[in-house]
Amino acid sequence: MAVLETIRNFFVPAFPAEPDVIVPAPFCDYEVRPLTIDHLQEALRLNIRCFRNGDNYTKHTFEYLLNEARTLSYRMVTPAGEMVGFAFVMVNENNAAHLTTIGVAPEHRRRKIAVKLLKHVEGSLRKRGIGTVMLEVRVSNTTAQDLYRTLGYTIVQRIGKYYNNGEDCFLMMKALW
Ligand SMILES: CC(C)(COP(=O)(O)OP(=O)(O)OC[C@H]1O[C@@H](n2cnc3c(N)ncnc32)[C@H](O)[C@@H]1OP(=O)(O)O)[C@@H](O)C(=O)NCCC(=O)NCCS
């Protein structure tokens, strides 16, 4: 649970909003690439756009994650090299992985970008001999819960008042083999 506590403290208060009407981006091919400290500013900008509810990480947290050897981080890019999605996972002391954050730009959603990012993450973890992935998700975030269920994650616990606003989370897990 120490990791859960750490992750909870990553969040910052709610951020100014995205326009209400999102115009879908033109369709294109997407590619998964590593996300490194060189992409910090772009990741921060995308992060703010993905999480309108305050679950966006601070610059400090991103710097910490990107400099931490136990973190695997990937971005999804367009042919022009624009980052339109990201996923971060941390391997904890028990050799289980913790999905710390995932986000996709609003105008690129519903194109399996999150699925592809998560499958890529899972493949990287398997290669490292990691057998379990866990994550927390707001009980109200049914979109993300649907995504995780699609990929075989199941709810194993409900944790009361996990978020700063008092909302509970579901702890979801998946065995990678
Ligand atoms: C959750 C999120 C990452 C999904 O990204 P995405 O690239 O649009 O998701 P995908 O296209 O890969 O969706 C895969 C499946 O997830 C589910 N899903 C995704 N978006 C959904 C939505 N708006 N409503 C219902 N189900 C949804 C569906 O089952 C979908 O499959 P389908 O399109 O064949 O029905 C994205 O909505 C996002 O960035 N949300 C804000 C940040 C966030 O909540 N992150 C998770 C924190 S725990």
Account of the 3D structure:
By secondary structure, the chain is of the alpha+beta class. It has helices spanning 2-8, 40-50, 59-66, 113-127, 142-150; strands at residues 31-34, 71-77, 83-91, 97-104, 132-138, 154-159, 169-175. Strand 4, helix 4 and strand 5 form a beta-alpha-beta unit. The longest helix has 15 residues, at 113-127. The chain is globular and about 40 Å long. The mean pLDDT is 92. The structure holds coenzyme A (COA).
First-to-last CA distance: 23 Å
How would you sum up the major sheet? 7 strands, mixed
Poorly predicted regions: none
General shape: globular
Helical content stands at 25-40%
Provide key terms for this protein.
28% helix, seven-stranded mixed β-sheet, alpha+beta, binds coenzyme A, 177 residues
Summarize the structure.
The chain is of the alpha+beta class. Helix content is 28%, strand content 27%.
